[in-house]
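Task card 7
Instruction: Convert sequence to structure tokens.
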Amino acid sequence: MIFKVLVPFMRPFMKTPAKGAATSIFLASSPEVEGVSGLYFANSRPRPSNKESYEVVAASRLWEVSAALSSLSASVK
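Output:
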């Protein structure tokens, strides 16, 4: 019910499925970014990620918790 009411107001800020997939398709198929790894992309361009995403201690902890929850070895990175 709430979703039906909110969608018309949110629609101008939403991307079409094709536009939403464009960056993923670009990254999967473009020779321009072949071999590029570890960057955040938005609208087919590298962008700085949120500053918290660069925190090494938080990233390590997230990896450990994720590995434990998925029954993977935490040493596999």
